[in-house]
Amino acid sequence: MSISKKYFKTKSACKVTFKLPHQACGNANKVCIVGDFNNWDVQADPMLKLKSGDFKIVLNLEPGNSYQYRYLIDGKKWENDWKADEYVHSPFGNCENSVVIV
Question: What is the pTM of this model?
Answer without folding.
Answer: 0.92
